[in-house]
Amino acid sequence: MTKYPHMNRLLSIALLMICTLKLSAQSKISIIPLPAKLEVRKGSLTLDKNVYISYPSANLKDLAMFAQSSIEETAGIKPELRTGMWMQRKAKTISLNIDSKVTSKEGYVLEVTANGVAIKAGTENGLFYGIQTLLQLVPVNGAKKLPCVYIEDEPRFSWRGMLMDNCRHMFSVDYIKKFIDQLAKHKLNKFHWHLTEDQGWRIEIKKYPKLQEIAAYRNGTQIGPNRKKDVDSIKYGGYYTQEQIKEVVAYATSRFVEVIPEIEMPGHSVAAITAYPYLACGDVSFENGKPFEVRKVWGVSKDLYCAGNDTVFTFLEDVLNEVMPLFPSQYIHIGGDEAPHDAWHTCPKCQARIKKEGLKDEAALQSWFIQRMEKFINSKGKKIIGWEEIMQGGLADNATVHSWLGVESGLKAAKSGHDVIMSPYSHLYIDGYQADPKIEPMAIGYWVPIDSVYAFEPVHPALNETEAKHILGAQGNLWTEFIGTEDYFEYMVYPRIAALAEIDWTPKALKNFEDFKGRLSTQYQRYDKQGIQFRIPVAISQTVVNPDSSVKVTLNDPTKASTIRYTTDGSDVNEQSSVYKQPVVLKKGQVIRYALFFNNKRKSSTDYFPKPVKQAK
Questions:
Q1: Model pLDDT for residues 295-304, shown as the tens digit of each residue
Q2: Does residue 157 contact residue 472 with C-beta atoms inside 8 Å?
Q3: Every domain of the chain and the residues it spans
Q4: Was domain 5-153 assigned CATH 3.30.379.10?
Q5: From CA 498, how far away is CA 519, in angstroms rounded?
Q6: Of 165, 162, 168, nearest to 182 (Cα)?
Q7: CATH topology of domain 540-609
Q8: Stretch 405-419: mean pLDDT, rounded?
Q9: Is the pTM here over 0.85, yes or no?
Q10: R_g (Cα) of the chain, nearest Å
Q11: Are 190 and 258 in contact (CB under 8 A)?
């Protein structure tokens, strides 16, 4: 990253830091993701009216203004801006400077002394991340003193992403901008925008108005686990205009976030097929023999784009010709997942295509489909990303593989020389439950607590050094089947996004979950000040069984900012319940219910002890 001698020995310093950095110092410096190198020094910088922001040239004015507004929002002071080599007696300067010695595109060097702050980077991108780190040095308790530190930092991976599914449930442009702000605060740089699905088409395509009129709306939504019983009859939908798309992309660019659109094919296409039924293998749904309708329920549909119909490719190319100019990204995500081949197997056109192209089977037909679309997308100067199923039947030459069912497909792709994004559902599908489903809101069935997120390692030991370079990074995915509100979206994302950020940014040698949990207590306060409805963790319980069969229960507050309240009489926990002050002794048959009240306001889920024990059959 840099010609500074310390960074040239980054790994050895990182390992040394684990052993030598005092815990007390680290607890005061709660930066997420943890920087590659952090030195805590004596002294502090007081933020007051004598603090100015200095930038050397006009091309850095936007960054300086961003720093100014962010410091005002975080610390309550608005430093004046000064350009050029400006100095004033008693002034304390926050200086932003491009320095060619910092060679990492996203790296930076930050130094805080009693006299000011110096942020250096080789690019504006690096300066932006230096500013984000500076903001995390501002105490959450309202104090105006920054600790004196020296930081050299750069990301471990180039792909640090999050997926937002706006097909199952939509969110406003303003809310998407708020989410992008949080991506930037966590130093994530890829926004994977899922825009087409069985349950709704969300991007305006002017050549095909029925995508807006028909495909964008469904006549009901699955609201519970049962696909037959738990479906309402409320019309739901909408779409983003191309002007709104441009607005989101421009905003993301200002936050150094790349937006990658996903246009699903050949599966997850029922909404488009409902608008234009000629895109399917038959005139009615293969699944039920009825007319097509935008899907109300979740899961996988057997209705796909017809691979034997040339008009399908005309449609998709027309769509992409409108989509691609909206997104500066070099990538288009084309999905490719969960496409059962049943309809293709019985479709005369698809079978004719298999025969004409000399293909082995329907899996090879899907590969042919993807490769045909890849050639078109490549001809427009873009590359494709696809979920790991695009490997079935043969992988397109220049495709990036998005590994989600596990890591095996990612390993296979990397070994064959293809770039890979790691998103195994077991660790990085953050729409899963965060704790016992009995105490959590409705979610998809799998369980992905924050420690599972943090534990994920993108580079498998089976990869050699050359193969490992094909692992671009990790991405968290938030599918919104049961996530229909902004508050619930935030409940699912935060704080798991913080664990994802540390996977993608922090050197592997520095990752330590216990230390991370300590820094989370400060991060909760930041989220609260930023108006984020994060998930408040449940209290941590420890139990001791006494000789008389009574049980002593000890509760701990992982947020360091909550009041624990509890009941033992069977009632739910509320603001009037007893405040936990010391271990509680339970008599035989007695149950304790407990919850955290963060800053004496928001309540966590209510947990309980003892849990019922399943009897063996």
A1: 999 999 999 9
A2: yes
A3: 5-153, 540-609
A4: yes
A5: 10
A6: 162
A7: Immunoglobulin-like (2.60.40)
A8: 97
A9: yes
A10: 26
A11: yes
